[in-house]
Amino acid sequence: MSHLSNYFLHRDGFSFRESQRMPSAHNLSCQMLNMGDPLWCFVGRRLLGVVGSDNCSAIYIVRFLFCPTYDHSIVYPGPNLNMIVGANGTGKSSIVCAICLGLGGKTAILGRGDKVGLYVKRGCNKGSIEIELYKPRGNLVINREIHVENNQSVWMLNGRHSSQKAVEEEVKALQIQVSNLCQFLPQNVCKEKASALEKFKQRNERNKHDVKRYYEKKRHLDMIEMLEKKKPWVEYETARMELEGVKKEREDAKKQLKTLRESQAPMLKKIQHIDSQLRPIENQMKEKTARIKEASQKCKQKQDHLDRKHREIEDIKQAFSLKQTEEADRQKRISNTRRMIDDLRAELSNIGDVSDVTPQIDAVNSEIKRIQAEKAEIEGENTDLSREKDNLMAECALLKNQLRSLDDMMKIKEAKLRGRSRDTYSAIQWLRQNKNLFSGNVYEPMMLVISVRNPEHAKYVENHIPFNDLRAFVFQKREDMEKFMAEVRDKQNLKVNAVFAPDGSGATRIPSRPIESLERFGFFAYLRELFDAPEEVMSYLCNQYKVHDVPVGTDRTKAMIKTVIEEPYLKVLYTAEEKYSLKKSLYSGKISTSNSAVRPSQYLTMAVDAEDKRQKELQIKAAEKSMQAIDSRMSTMRESVLKLDRRDNELKAKKKELSELKGKKRQLEQKISAKQDSLRQMEQGGIDLQKAEEETKTQISAVNSQKVAIVAEFMTHMKLSMEKVYTALETMGLTAEKTKLENDCREGSAELRQACAKLDQRKARLLETCKGLMRTAREICKMDPGESAVPQDLHTAFCQLPDTLDEIDSMLNEERSRAECFTGLSENVVDEYNKREQEIKNLEKELDDKNKALDTYRRNISEAKERWLNPLKQLVEQINVKFSDFFCSMQCAGEVDLHSENEEEYDKYGIRIRVKFRSNTQLHELTAHHQSGGERSVSTMLYLMALQELNRCPFRVVDEINQGMDPVNERRVFDIVVRTACKETTSQYFFITPKLLQNLQYADEMTVLCVHNGPHMLPPYKWDEKGFIRRCLRRKGKQ
């Protein structure tokens, strides 16, 4: 080993000494990091002159204070490949974090915490990072001071205060892209104008018709306005002409009234003569009326008496009729009774002597009692079965309601999954229809089968299990998973995740410590105890995420966190609101921690216990089976009861027949005796109809004699009424003649007087109407009050219009109807139309200019595309050649190509990597699901190597990419990295790893940075560099 330079730093300061040259098979530059307590760090040596000429903007010096692992550290990287080696927990990734954050990178790139304050050592209020970038005309020094309290940063450029944006611009100018994974790979992560013109034209074309209709409507409205102006003048003229006619009619009526009064004088004398004749006749009428009134009272009394006699005769006749009906009914009853007695005697004679049937009746009674007892027993059993069935139905309904609630919760969870990953939801539907294709157990995505016992604890499970695994299907057998992925991913092109459970059952793994031993820190359960899942799913989670060994605590745990992290065996833990990850140094025993806030749960809050659901389904099936058995048993018992009922009815009929036979003779004798007694009573109660008829006739004759006397008195009073009638007729004749004469006189004069009164009223009304119409006409035409003549312009217009009201009204209605047809129009339409016409002209001119410019742009784009795409394809082809060569050297296959579904969508262009690690498989696209973690690491590393010579950038950082590789691939990849990164023309390279294989090939251009930490490191003044070299040589000589 030659050029072995050792650098050590202690809390009192740092010093470095360069050792003597020593012979070795390789020229290797090596630095060691010695960290005490508090931790100090010094790594590397200054870049030599080779950096100045070949690698502008490479990292020259990195200094940081109070970053996650170190109190103070300085790193001097080499110009080519920098191999940063150190055990887990020594702080290798702290160097990566310092480079990223010091160059303005986001915390999301590192994936270790979302707040920049989390990257300051615990217990410190602030930390600082200083990075010096090499530049030929003077290095660029970037300083970032991070404040924990408010997660804010203070930036400086070359010792002067600056902003983060200015720093980012300086870094960008040096072609440093921290967010580009190909450069920095951390451990965890005119048409519009044309359219407007066309719309304007279409809208104006639509509005053109509206504008035409607007002007047509305006013509009709103008005509309506003119007609409405002329109409009051025509109405005034019509009313004035009518007034003149009324005046003339009034004068004529007055003359006719005077002539009529002169011709009615003889008729008035005759009316006076008739009045003298009517006076004595009216006196006679009054006298006769008084006498008739008195006689009427007497006649009314006689009439009432006569009515009573009529009713008395009717009552006598009705009483006799009732006696006739009663006697006919008696004779009929006697006849029926005699016939019944004869029938009963005949039936009694037919019965004769009957033997004793009592023993037979007793036997029938015994059989009936036995049947009733058997029926009671069956009915009791049937009641018990009905009660049992009702209980089963209630239990089944309750279980179905509970199962329906579980299904509703499952549908909500499926809806959330569909909103986040529609491909996974489609794969679930396919799996449910094709589950018979698989030989082992297959489970839907974990988020659907995991049931959190307490919704408040769902956030811990979700924060611990990544969403990619929550939406992953779980398979018991690997061949089932490959069959599933071949169908849904390769054939259906769905982006889904799938995992298979470990061979052994990990669901029953025992925690490293009982939870009772951690209760004093506030821990109440391990993560596995917070949820239920199928055995295979739980086994996978225990194996992959150690859920059986992750304790969950409370706020008490947070308060005691400094004591908690000192406990052995704790690697990951949860407090009430935070997640802590702990790493313990194998050398010093020191604990490094990182924490992050626990995100609220999104998917597991609604827990669905799959086992509980399955048990409920089994209980429902068992209950339904029991109900079917009960129904069958009850049906059998119903048939038995029907048979017993039929036998019981037969026995009762037989018993009735025997009982009736025994008592029938006695009953017949009793009935005959009763009927004979009834017959004797009916024969004794007869009525003499002849005698009753004679009595009735005598009574009616006496009443008729009384009626004749009453009618004679009534006729005497009727003569007086006839005299009054004759006198009244004479009076009516004279009165009628008088009335006729009076009516003739009255009608002639009354009609004329009424006509004169109406004409007076009509004249006054028309006069007022004329005045009102004149005022209205003047107002409509906007004339002065004293002006009576129509203005000349209106007179000319009026001459072209009709002269009658009917014609004006007809024309006005017609014009209004036409105007009403033009709805939805306004002056705004015309204004918008004219305005848009001007806009169309402006847009047409602008569009013409844009089209000319667009043609020029298209030509330029076509030329630029040729200049850009062809070199890009050549560059990708060069990457592909190197990438394929690297894979061929590993006896594998790989290729890189430029991929885009549409050549015109330049933002959709991308690099597609396809690899094959086994000879019996096809090339598959590099994804997070198809290849293993080690295969992805190898592919990523070789792709970066392929870029090394083609894509120049100041430096590249790769953190622990060899962790998942097998030893063979790791050795091959290491050789490729050394060969590629140690060329003179390549960029600066940082390769961070916790371990290396033995007997690797090294290069002179490499810089090895060995990171050590712990409280037992020697201080600089005790370090014997020469003695260390002698011991190394002596050890090597013995080998």
UniProtKB/TrEMBL annotation:
GO terms for cellular component: chromosome, telomeric region; nucleus; Smc5-Smc6 complex
Pfam name, any one: AAA_23
Segments forming a coiled coil: 361-409, 613-685, 826-867
Principal subcellular localisation of the protein: nucleus
Keyword Membrane listed: no
One Gene Ontology MF term: ATP hydrolysis activity
Domain Rad50/SbcC-type AAA residues, every copy: 74-304
Keywords attached to this entry: ATP-binding, Chromosome, Coiled coil, Nucleotide-binding, Nucleus, Telomere
Lineage top rank: taxon: Eukaryota
N-terminal signal peptide: none
Subcellular location: Chromosome, Telomere; Nucleus
Annotated stretches, region: Disordered: 289-310
Similarity comment text for this entry: Belongs to the SMC family. SMC5 subfamily.
Name assigned to this protein: Structural maintenance of chromosomes protein 5
